[in-house]
Amino acid sequence: MKPRTRKRVRRGLTVGVVTAALAGALALVMVWERGPVTVQVWVPDLSAEALGGKQAFDRRCAQCHGADARGSPIGPPLVHSTYQPRHHADVSFTLAVRRGVQAHHWRFGSMPPQPEVTAAEVEQITRYVRELQRANGVH
Asked: What is the pLDDT of residues 67-104, one digit of tens each?
């Protein structure tokens, strides 16, 4: 057998680096291409606080996130494993409303701040979304 030359080793490294870069780019595209997505949502009997949250959600959020947080052509579903409490704690809903969100999970674009939504409404909306998530196996 012939000993490996520097040229062969460099070529092998180059092919490996290019292959890894292409695989990484493909994985990024596959994640980024997850939009528009809608999901089936079963609505359980809601607590009083969650009922208030549903009313606030319908008024403030449904135009983008869809009825019952199932998603729409312009906003992601919130009843989705991406928003499970282990990945997005309740405070992330408050921060999203107050500061907006730079697009990073979906391809819908960034969410602007929603200053007209009160802190009490955000708390109720979060309760509503969490009850929907639990009822639909997202926890």
From this structure: 999 999 999 999 999 999 999 999 999 999 999 999 99
Q: Which two tokens stand for residue 10?
A: 């460099």
Sign of CA dihedral 106, 109, 113, 116: negative
Q: End-to-end distance of the chain based on CA atoms, in angstroms?
A: 58
Tokens of 134: 């639990």
Q: Which single residue is written with the structure tokens 């309740």?
A: 90
- Are 54 and 62 contacting, i.e. CB atoms less than 8 angstroms apart? no
Question: CA-to-CA distance for 23 and 135, rounded, in angstroms?
Answer: 36
Q: Do 94 and 119 meet the contact criterion of CB atoms below 8 Å apart? A: yes
Distance CA 7, CA 50 (A): 66
CA distances from 87 to 38, 39, 54 (A): 19, 19, 22
